Amino acid sequence: MTWLYCLSALVVLSTSFVIGKRYEPNWASIDSRPIPAWYDEGKLGIFIHFGVFSVPSVGFNSESEWFWNYWKNLKVPAYIDFMNKNYKPDFTYADFAKDFTAEFFDANKWANILNSSGADYIVFTSKHGEGYTNWPSNISFNWNSMAVGPKRDIVGELMEAIRGKTKLHFGLYHCLYEWLHPLYLRDKENNWQTRDFVTKKALPGLYEIVNTYKPDIVWSDGDYEAPDTYWNSTGFLAWLYNDSPVKDIVVTNDRWGIGANCTHGGVWTCRDRYLPGKLQTHKWVNAMTIDRQSWGYRRNADLSQYLSIEEILATFVQTVSCGGNMLMNVGPQKDGIIAPIFEERLGQLGQWLSVNGDAIRGTRPWTTQNDTLTPTVWYTKKASIIYAIVLNWPETDTLKLAAPVSSTSTRVALLGYTGGQFQYQNLPTGGIEIMIPPIAINKMPCQWAWVFTLTNLQNA
Protein backbone atom coordinates (compact mmCIF):
# COMPACT_ATOMS: atom_id res chain seq x y z
CA MET A 1 0.00 0.00 0.00
CA THR A 2 2.76 2.47 0.97
CA TRP A 3 4.76 1.64 -2.16
CA LEU A 4 1.72 2.14 -4.40
CA TYR A 5 0.92 5.44 -2.67
CA CYS A 6 4.46 6.71 -3.21
CA LEU A 7 4.38 5.64 -6.83
CA SER A 8 1.06 7.43 -7.35
CA ALA A 9 2.44 10.59 -5.75
CA LEU A 10 5.50 10.44 -8.00
CA VAL A 11 3.30 10.05 -11.08
CA VAL A 12 1.20 13.03 -9.99
CA LEU A 13 4.29 15.18 -9.41
CA SER A 14 5.82 14.15 -12.73
CA THR A 15 2.59 14.77 -14.58
CA SER A 16 2.22 18.14 -12.89
CA PHE A 17 5.73 19.07 -14.01
CA VAL A 18 5.09 18.01 -17.59
CA ILE A 19 1.74 19.72 -17.94
CA GLY A 20 2.68 22.77 -15.85
CA LYS A 21 2.37 26.22 -17.37
CA ARG A 22 5.05 27.16 -19.82
CA TYR A 23 5.62 30.76 -20.78
CA GLU A 24 5.75 31.82 -24.39
CA PRO A 25 8.23 34.43 -25.69
CA ASN A 26 5.66 37.25 -25.80
CA TRP A 27 4.70 39.86 -23.23
CA ALA A 28 1.16 38.60 -22.69
CA SER A 29 2.50 35.24 -21.56
CA ILE A 30 5.53 36.58 -19.68
CA ASP A 31 3.40 39.09 -17.79
CA SER A 32 1.02 36.34 -16.63
CA ARG A 33 3.69 34.79 -14.40
CA PRO A 34 3.00 35.54 -10.71
CA ILE A 35 5.68 37.26 -8.65
CA PRO A 36 7.23 34.57 -6.39
CA ALA A 37 5.75 34.89 -2.89
CA TRP A 38 9.11 35.19 -1.10
CA TYR A 39 9.70 38.56 -2.74
CA ASP A 40 6.40 40.07 -1.64
CA GLU A 41 6.81 38.74 1.91
CA GLY A 42 10.21 40.36 2.38
CA LYS A 43 10.01 44.09 1.76
CA LEU A 44 13.66 45.15 1.91
CA GLY A 45 16.63 44.51 -0.35
CA ILE A 46 20.15 45.95 -0.41
CA PHE A 47 21.66 47.06 -3.72
CA ILE A 48 25.47 47.11 -4.11
CA HIS A 49 27.27 49.01 -6.89
CA PHE A 50 30.93 47.98 -7.18
CA GLY A 51 33.20 48.08 -10.23
CA VAL A 52 36.01 49.92 -12.00
CA PHE A 53 33.98 53.13 -11.48
CA SER A 54 34.80 52.68 -7.78
CA VAL A 55 38.38 53.75 -8.59
CA PRO A 56 37.81 57.37 -9.75
CA SER A 57 34.79 57.40 -7.40
CA VAL A 58 33.71 60.94 -8.06
CA GLY A 59 30.42 62.36 -9.24
CA PHE A 60 29.67 66.00 -9.93
CA ASN A 61 25.99 66.39 -9.04
CA SER A 62 25.59 62.99 -10.69
CA GLU A 63 26.30 59.28 -10.40
CA SER A 64 29.90 58.15 -10.05
CA GLU A 65 29.21 54.82 -11.76
CA TRP A 66 28.58 56.69 -15.03
CA PHE A 67 32.07 58.22 -14.92
CA TRP A 68 33.32 56.77 -18.24
CA ASN A 69 30.17 57.72 -20.09
CA TYR A 70 30.14 61.25 -18.71
CA TRP A 71 33.84 61.69 -19.51
CA LYS A 72 34.25 60.13 -22.94
CA ASN A 73 30.80 59.76 -24.43
CA LEU A 74 28.71 62.68 -23.12
CA LYS A 75 31.82 64.85 -22.60
CA VAL A 76 30.55 66.57 -19.46
CA PRO A 77 32.99 69.46 -18.70
CA ALA A 78 33.37 68.69 -14.98
CA TYR A 79 34.63 65.18 -15.74
CA ILE A 80 36.95 66.37 -18.49
CA ASP A 81 38.40 69.00 -16.16
CA PHE A 82 38.87 66.43 -13.40
CA MET A 83 40.83 64.14 -15.71
CA ASN A 84 42.91 66.97 -17.15
CA LYS A 85 43.92 68.15 -13.67
CA ASN A 86 44.67 64.77 -12.15
CA TYR A 87 45.80 62.34 -14.86
CA LYS A 88 48.30 62.26 -17.69
CA PRO A 89 46.97 63.15 -21.15
CA ASP A 90 47.04 59.60 -22.56
CA PHE A 91 45.26 58.03 -19.55
CA THR A 92 42.36 55.76 -20.56
CA TYR A 93 39.44 54.44 -18.58
CA ALA A 94 40.90 50.94 -18.84
CA ASP A 95 43.93 52.21 -16.88
CA PHE A 96 41.69 52.55 -13.82
CA ALA A 97 41.17 48.78 -13.70
CA LYS A 98 44.58 47.95 -12.24
CA ASP A 99 43.71 50.10 -9.22
CA PHE A 100 40.42 48.29 -8.64
CA THR A 101 42.30 46.25 -6.06
CA ALA A 102 39.59 45.21 -3.59
CA GLU A 103 42.34 44.26 -1.14
CA PHE A 104 39.99 44.64 1.83
CA PHE A 105 37.06 42.91 0.16
CA ASP A 106 35.97 40.25 2.62
CA ALA A 107 32.79 38.52 1.44
CA ASN A 108 32.06 37.17 4.91
CA LYS A 109 32.33 40.63 6.45
CA TRP A 110 30.09 42.02 3.73
CA ALA A 111 27.57 39.27 4.44
CA ASN A 112 27.51 40.24 8.13
CA ILE A 113 27.11 43.95 7.38
CA LEU A 114 24.37 43.37 4.82
CA ASN A 115 22.58 40.93 7.09
CA SER A 116 22.64 43.46 9.93
CA SER A 117 20.18 45.59 7.95
CA GLY A 118 17.35 43.12 8.47
CA ALA A 119 16.95 42.88 4.69
CA ASP A 120 15.58 39.81 2.91
CA TYR A 121 17.70 39.93 -0.25
CA ILE A 122 20.60 41.65 -1.97
CA VAL A 123 21.23 42.65 -5.58
CA PHE A 124 24.89 42.92 -6.58
CA THR A 125 26.25 44.48 -9.79
CA SER A 126 27.65 41.71 -11.95
CA LYS A 127 28.23 44.17 -14.81
CA HIS A 128 27.48 47.87 -15.26
CA GLY A 129 27.49 50.02 -18.41
CA GLU A 130 31.29 50.06 -18.46
CA GLY A 131 31.18 46.37 -19.45
CA TYR A 132 33.59 45.18 -16.75
CA THR A 133 32.36 41.95 -15.19
CA ASN A 134 32.76 41.10 -11.51
CA TRP A 135 33.08 37.44 -12.42
CA PRO A 136 35.60 35.60 -14.68
CA SER A 137 33.38 35.85 -17.74
CA ASN A 138 34.09 33.71 -20.78
CA ILE A 139 32.87 36.48 -23.05
CA SER A 140 34.57 39.48 -21.42
CA PHE A 141 38.16 38.32 -22.01
CA ASN A 142 40.60 40.58 -20.13
CA TRP A 143 37.93 43.01 -18.91
CA ASN A 144 36.84 41.09 -15.81
CA SER A 145 37.69 40.82 -12.12
CA MET A 146 39.83 37.71 -12.53
CA ALA A 147 41.94 39.05 -15.39
CA VAL A 148 42.59 42.58 -14.15
CA GLY A 149 42.12 44.33 -10.81
CA PRO A 150 41.24 42.09 -7.87
CA LYS A 151 42.17 38.84 -9.68
CA ARG A 152 39.20 37.28 -7.89
CA ASP A 153 35.69 36.05 -8.63
CA ILE A 154 33.88 38.77 -6.68
CA VAL A 155 30.39 37.50 -7.57
CA GLY A 156 31.27 33.94 -6.62
CA GLU A 157 32.84 34.85 -3.29
CA LEU A 158 29.90 37.03 -2.31
CA MET A 159 27.37 34.40 -3.40
CA GLU A 160 29.03 31.75 -1.23
CA ALA A 161 29.19 34.06 1.80
CA ILE A 162 25.60 35.24 1.48
CA ARG A 163 24.22 31.74 1.04
CA GLY A 164 26.55 30.21 3.60
CA LYS A 165 26.26 32.74 6.43
CA THR A 166 22.80 34.34 6.01
CA LYS A 167 19.24 33.64 4.89
CA LEU A 168 19.37 36.49 2.39
CA HIS A 169 18.30 35.79 -1.16
CA PHE A 170 21.14 36.45 -3.61
CA GLY A 171 20.39 38.55 -6.70
CA LEU A 172 22.43 39.97 -9.55
CA TYR A 173 22.22 43.22 -11.51
CA HIS A 174 23.20 43.03 -15.18
CA CYS A 175 23.40 46.03 -17.52
CA LEU A 176 22.24 45.14 -21.02
CA TYR A 177 24.09 47.80 -22.94
CA GLU A 178 27.72 48.92 -22.78
CA TRP A 179 28.27 52.59 -23.57
CA LEU A 180 31.39 52.28 -25.70
CA HIS A 181 31.43 48.67 -26.88
CA PRO A 182 32.13 48.73 -30.65
CA LEU A 183 29.54 46.06 -31.46
CA TYR A 184 26.87 47.95 -29.54
CA LEU A 185 27.78 51.24 -31.21
CA ARG A 186 27.63 49.57 -34.63
CA ASP A 187 24.20 48.08 -33.92
CA LYS A 188 23.07 51.49 -32.77
CA GLU A 189 24.32 53.09 -36.01
CA ASN A 190 22.36 50.44 -37.90
CA ASN A 191 19.19 51.51 -36.08
CA TRP A 192 19.08 48.16 -34.24
CA GLN A 193 18.64 46.20 -37.46
CA THR A 194 21.80 44.26 -36.62
CA ARG A 195 22.13 42.42 -33.29
CA ASP A 196 25.79 41.44 -33.06
CA PHE A 197 26.25 42.88 -29.57
CA VAL A 198 23.20 40.99 -28.29
CA THR A 199 24.13 37.61 -29.70
CA LYS A 200 27.86 37.81 -28.96
CA LYS A 201 27.94 39.70 -25.65
CA ALA A 202 24.74 40.69 -23.84
CA LEU A 203 22.71 37.48 -23.92
CA PRO A 204 25.70 35.13 -23.46
CA GLY A 205 26.58 37.14 -20.33
CA LEU A 206 23.06 36.79 -18.95
CA TYR A 207 22.96 33.04 -19.57
CA GLU A 208 26.41 32.73 -18.01
CA ILE A 209 25.53 34.40 -14.69
CA VAL A 210 22.23 32.54 -14.37
CA ASN A 211 23.74 29.12 -15.04
CA THR A 212 26.85 29.77 -12.94
CA TYR A 213 25.49 31.63 -9.90
CA LYS A 214 21.76 30.80 -9.96
CA PRO A 215 20.59 34.21 -8.72
CA ASP A 216 17.17 34.53 -7.08
CA ILE A 217 16.81 37.96 -8.73
CA VAL A 218 17.88 38.98 -12.23
CA TRP A 219 17.85 42.78 -12.25
CA SER A 220 18.13 44.15 -15.77
CA ASP A 221 19.17 47.70 -16.65
CA GLY A 222 20.57 49.71 -19.56
CA ASP A 223 17.36 49.42 -21.56
CA TYR A 224 17.09 53.10 -22.42
CA GLU A 225 18.02 53.15 -26.10
CA ALA A 226 16.93 49.97 -27.90
CA PRO A 227 13.57 48.16 -28.12
CA ASP A 228 12.98 44.88 -26.31
CA THR A 229 12.93 43.08 -29.68
CA TYR A 230 16.58 44.03 -30.18
CA TRP A 231 17.47 42.41 -26.86
CA ASN A 232 15.19 39.38 -27.45
CA SER A 233 13.98 40.04 -23.93
CA THR A 234 10.86 37.86 -24.11
CA GLY A 235 12.94 34.99 -25.48
CA PHE A 236 15.38 35.20 -22.59
CA LEU A 237 12.62 35.57 -20.00
CA ALA A 238 10.74 32.56 -21.41
CA TRP A 239 13.91 30.48 -20.95
CA LEU A 240 14.45 31.95 -17.47
CA TYR A 241 10.89 31.06 -16.37
CA ASN A 242 10.68 27.68 -18.12
CA ASP A 243 14.06 25.99 -18.22
CA SER A 244 16.66 27.86 -16.17
CA PRO A 245 17.99 26.48 -12.86
CA VAL A 246 16.06 29.23 -11.02
CA LYS A 247 12.82 29.03 -12.99
CA ASP A 248 10.53 28.58 -9.97
CA ILE A 249 12.06 31.16 -7.63
CA VAL A 250 13.57 33.91 -9.77
CA VAL A 251 12.26 37.48 -9.68
CA THR A 252 12.88 39.92 -12.52
CA ASN A 253 12.16 43.59 -13.11
CA ASP A 254 10.82 45.62 -16.03
CA ARG A 255 13.95 47.08 -17.66
CA TRP A 256 14.04 44.96 -20.81
CA GLY A 257 13.87 47.57 -23.56
CA ILE A 258 12.05 50.72 -24.61
CA GLY A 259 8.35 50.29 -23.93
CA ALA A 260 8.73 47.57 -21.29
CA ASN A 261 9.54 49.80 -18.32
CA CYS A 262 6.61 50.14 -15.93
CA THR A 263 4.57 47.99 -18.32
CA HIS A 264 6.05 44.51 -18.77
CA GLY A 265 8.25 41.99 -17.00
CA GLY A 266 8.29 41.15 -13.29
CA VAL A 267 8.24 43.83 -10.59
CA TRP A 268 8.03 47.37 -11.90
CA THR A 269 10.78 49.88 -11.20
CA CYS A 270 9.31 52.63 -13.41
CA ARG A 271 12.20 54.97 -12.58
CA ASP A 272 14.97 55.33 -10.04
CA ARG A 273 13.78 56.38 -6.58
CA TYR A 274 10.18 55.68 -7.62
CA LEU A 275 7.84 56.65 -4.77
CA PRO A 276 4.28 57.17 -6.09
CA GLY A 277 2.71 57.93 -2.70
CA LYS A 278 -0.40 55.88 -3.41
CA LEU A 279 -1.35 52.23 -3.78
CA GLN A 280 -0.30 50.68 -7.09
CA THR A 281 -2.07 47.92 -9.02
CA HIS A 282 1.14 46.00 -9.80
CA LYS A 283 4.00 44.91 -7.57
CA TRP A 284 6.67 47.60 -7.69
CA VAL A 285 10.01 48.51 -6.15
CA ASN A 286 11.61 51.73 -4.99
CA ALA A 287 15.28 51.42 -5.98
CA MET A 288 16.93 54.22 -4.04
CA THR A 289 20.29 55.33 -2.67
CA ILE A 290 21.68 56.34 0.72
CA ASP A 291 23.89 58.82 -1.15
CA ARG A 292 21.25 61.19 -2.55
CA GLN A 293 23.02 61.48 -5.92
CA SER A 294 24.98 58.34 -6.67
CA TRP A 295 24.87 54.56 -6.70
CA GLY A 296 28.64 54.13 -6.83
CA TYR A 297 30.86 55.43 -4.02
CA ARG A 298 31.73 59.14 -4.22
CA ARG A 299 34.85 60.47 -2.52
CA ASN A 300 33.56 64.01 -3.01
CA ALA A 301 30.24 63.51 -1.19
CA ASP A 302 29.75 65.41 2.04
CA LEU A 303 27.63 64.37 5.01
CA SER A 304 24.58 66.38 3.97
CA GLN A 305 24.37 64.31 0.79
CA TYR A 306 23.65 61.10 2.73
CA LEU A 307 20.13 60.28 3.86
CA SER A 308 19.54 60.25 7.60
CA ILE A 309 17.98 57.17 9.18
CA GLU A 310 14.78 59.20 9.67
CA GLU A 311 14.63 59.93 5.93
CA ILE A 312 15.35 56.30 5.08
CA LEU A 313 12.58 55.05 7.38
CA ALA A 314 10.10 57.58 6.02
CA THR A 315 10.85 56.34 2.50
CA PHE A 316 10.70 52.70 3.54
CA VAL A 317 7.42 52.97 5.42
CA GLN A 318 5.72 54.90 2.63
CA THR A 319 6.98 52.36 0.07
CA VAL A 320 5.65 49.34 1.96
CA SER A 321 2.34 51.03 2.79
CA CYS A 322 1.75 51.58 -0.92
CA GLY A 323 2.53 47.96 -1.82
CA GLY A 324 6.16 48.26 -2.84
CA ASN A 325 9.54 46.88 -1.82
CA MET A 326 12.53 49.10 -1.14
CA LEU A 327 15.92 48.30 -2.68
CA MET A 328 18.42 50.50 -0.84
CA ASN A 329 21.83 51.03 -2.38
CA VAL A 330 25.32 51.19 -0.90
CA GLY A 331 28.50 51.86 -2.87
CA PRO A 332 31.68 50.20 -1.55
CA GLN A 333 35.11 51.79 -2.01
CA LYS A 334 37.58 50.47 -4.55
CA ASP A 335 39.48 48.61 -1.83
CA GLY A 336 36.35 46.67 -0.87
CA ILE A 337 35.50 48.60 2.29
CA ILE A 338 31.87 49.48 2.94
CA ALA A 339 32.26 52.99 4.37
CA PRO A 340 31.16 53.53 8.00
CA ILE A 341 28.30 55.86 6.97
CA PHE A 342 26.73 53.02 4.96
CA GLU A 343 27.44 50.46 7.67
CA GLU A 344 25.80 52.71 10.25
CA ARG A 345 22.65 53.24 8.18
CA LEU A 346 22.33 49.49 7.51
CA GLY A 347 22.72 48.71 11.21
CA GLN A 348 20.21 51.39 12.24
CA LEU A 349 17.64 49.99 9.83
CA GLY A 350 18.23 46.53 11.26
CA GLN A 351 17.78 47.83 14.80
CA TRP A 352 14.45 49.35 13.82
CA LEU A 353 13.26 46.17 12.14
CA SER A 354 14.23 44.08 15.17
CA VAL A 355 11.49 45.94 17.06
CA ASN A 356 9.03 46.78 14.31
CA GLY A 357 9.50 44.02 11.74
CA ASP A 358 5.97 42.68 12.31
CA ALA A 359 4.63 45.90 10.76
CA ILE A 360 6.69 45.31 7.61
CA ARG A 361 7.44 41.66 6.81
CA GLY A 362 4.52 39.70 5.41
CA THR A 363 2.20 42.71 5.50
CA ARG A 364 -0.21 43.92 2.85
CA PRO A 365 -1.51 47.40 2.06
CA TRP A 366 -4.60 48.45 3.97
CA THR A 367 -7.57 50.27 2.46
CA THR A 368 -5.95 53.50 3.68
CA GLN A 369 -2.28 54.25 3.10
CA ASN A 370 -1.68 57.42 5.10
CA ASP A 371 -3.90 59.14 7.59
CA THR A 372 -5.75 62.35 6.77
CA LEU A 373 -5.74 63.77 10.31
CA THR A 374 -2.08 62.93 10.88
CA PRO A 375 -0.49 62.57 7.41
CA THR A 376 2.85 61.39 8.80
CA VAL A 377 1.16 58.15 9.84
CA TRP A 378 1.24 55.29 7.31
CA TYR A 379 -0.63 52.01 7.55
CA THR A 380 0.11 48.36 6.84
CA LYS A 381 -1.96 45.25 7.54
CA LYS A 382 -1.38 41.63 8.54
CA ALA A 383 -4.40 39.38 9.07
CA SER A 384 -6.72 41.35 11.40
CA ILE A 385 -4.00 43.65 12.75
CA ILE A 386 -3.61 47.19 11.42
CA TYR A 387 -0.23 48.82 11.99
CA ALA A 388 -0.14 52.62 12.29
CA ILE A 389 3.47 53.67 11.71
CA VAL A 390 4.11 57.09 13.25
CA LEU A 391 7.05 58.93 11.68
CA ASN A 392 6.93 61.82 14.19
CA TRP A 393 6.21 61.16 17.86
CA PRO A 394 3.21 63.27 18.94
CA GLU A 395 4.09 66.57 20.61
CA THR A 396 1.04 66.26 22.89
CA ASP A 397 -0.19 63.29 24.91
CA THR A 398 -2.64 62.13 22.24
CA LEU A 399 -2.49 60.79 18.69
CA LYS A 400 -5.49 61.44 16.44
CA LEU A 401 -6.17 59.03 13.58
CA ALA A 402 -8.97 59.43 11.06
CA ALA A 403 -8.86 56.02 9.37
CA PRO A 404 -9.53 53.44 12.14
CA VAL A 405 -13.13 52.63 13.09
CA SER A 406 -13.14 51.00 16.52
CA SER A 407 -15.32 48.21 17.86
CA THR A 408 -16.10 47.29 21.47
CA SER A 409 -13.17 44.86 21.42
CA THR A 410 -10.58 47.10 19.77
CA ARG A 411 -7.19 47.11 21.49
CA VAL A 412 -4.30 49.55 21.00
CA ALA A 413 -0.67 48.81 21.81
CA LEU A 414 2.82 49.98 20.88
CA LEU A 415 5.21 47.48 19.33
CA GLY A 416 8.13 46.77 21.64
CA TYR A 417 6.58 48.59 24.61
CA THR A 418 6.07 46.52 27.76
CA GLY A 419 3.92 48.97 29.68
CA GLY A 420 0.58 47.59 28.55
CA GLN A 421 -2.23 48.70 26.28
CA PHE A 422 -3.18 52.29 25.49
CA GLN A 423 -6.54 53.91 26.17
CA TYR A 424 -8.40 55.58 23.31
CA GLN A 425 -11.68 57.31 22.55
CA ASN A 426 -13.75 57.74 19.42
CA LEU A 427 -13.63 61.11 17.70
CA PRO A 428 -16.94 62.87 16.92
CA THR A 429 -15.93 63.17 13.27
CA GLY A 430 -14.82 59.55 13.01
CA GLY A 431 -11.56 57.85 13.84
CA ILE A 432 -9.91 57.51 17.23
CA GLU A 433 -7.77 59.49 19.63
CA ILE A 434 -5.07 57.45 21.41
CA MET A 435 -4.09 58.54 24.91
CA ILE A 436 -0.32 58.35 25.36
CA PRO A 437 0.94 58.12 28.94
CA PRO A 438 4.34 59.54 29.94
CA ILE A 439 7.03 57.07 28.85
CA ALA A 440 10.59 57.27 30.16
CA ILE A 441 13.21 57.59 27.44
CA ASN A 442 14.74 54.25 28.41
CA LYS A 443 11.34 52.59 28.05
CA MET A 444 10.77 53.76 24.48
CA PRO A 445 10.94 50.71 22.19
CA CYS A 446 12.99 52.46 19.49
CA GLN A 447 14.46 55.81 18.53
CA TRP A 448 12.56 56.50 15.32
CA ALA A 449 9.24 55.69 13.60
CA TRP A 450 7.03 54.08 16.25
CA VAL A 451 4.33 51.50 15.47
CA PHE A 452 0.90 51.29 17.09
CA THR A 453 -1.01 48.03 16.67
CA LEU A 454 -4.77 48.30 16.23
CA THR A 455 -6.65 45.04 16.65
CA ASN A 456 -10.34 44.19 16.17
CA LEU A 457 -11.22 47.32 14.23
CA GLN A 458 -14.60 47.36 12.52
CA ASN A 459 -12.93 48.29 9.22
CA ALA A 460 -9.87 46.05 9.49
TrEMBL record:
<dbReference type="GO" id="GO:0006004">
    <property type="term" value="P:fucose metabolic process"/>
</dbReference>
<keyword id="KW-0378">Hydrolase</keyword>
<keyword id="KW-0732">Signal</keyword>
<dbReference type="GO" id="GO:0016139">
    <property type="term" value="P:glycoside catabolic process"/>
</dbReference>
<comment type="function">
    <text>Alpha-L-fucosidase is responsible for hydrolyzing the alpha-1,6-linked fucose joined to the reducing-end N-acetylglucosamine of the carbohydrate moieties of glycoproteins.</text>
</comment>
<feature type="domain" description="Glycoside hydrolase family 29 N-terminal">
    <location>
        <begin position="20"/>
        <end position="358"/>
    </location>
</feature>
<dbReference type="Pfam" id="PF16757">
    <property type="entry name" value="Fucosidase_C"/>
</dbReference>
<protein>
    <recommendedName>
        <fullName>alpha-L-fucosidase</fullName>
        <ecNumber>3.2.1.51</ecNumber>
    </recommendedName>
</protein>
<dbReference type="InterPro" id="IPR000933">
    <property type="entry name" value="Glyco_hydro_29"/>
</dbReference>
<comment type="similarity">
    <text>Belongs to the glycosyl hydrolase 29 family.</text>
</comment>
<keyword id="KW-0325">Glycoprotein</keyword>
<dbReference type="InterPro" id="IPR013780">
    <property type="entry name" value="Glyco_hydro_b"/>
</dbReference>
<dbReference type="InterPro" id="IPR016286">
    <property type="entry name" value="FUC_metazoa-typ"/>
</dbReference>
<feature type="domain" description="Alpha-L-fucosidase C-terminal">
    <location>
        <begin position="369"/>
        <end position="455"/>
    </location>
</feature>
<keyword id="KW-0326">Glycosidase</keyword>
<feature type="signal peptide">
    <location>
        <begin position="1"/>
        <end position="20"/>
    </location>
</feature>
<dbReference type="GO" id="GO:0005764">
    <property type="term" value="C:lysosome"/>
</dbReference>
<dbReference type="GO" id="GO:0004560">
    <property type="term" value="F:alpha-L-fucosidase activity"/>
</dbReference>
<dbReference type="Pfam" id="PF01120">
    <property type="entry name" value="Alpha_L_fucos"/>
</dbReference>
<dbReference type="InterPro" id="IPR031919">
    <property type="entry name" value="Fucosidase_C"/>
</dbReference>
<dbReference type="InterPro" id="IPR017853">
    <property type="entry name" value="GH"/>
</dbReference>
<dbReference type="InterPro" id="IPR057739">
    <property type="entry name" value="Glyco_hydro_29_N"/>
</dbReference>
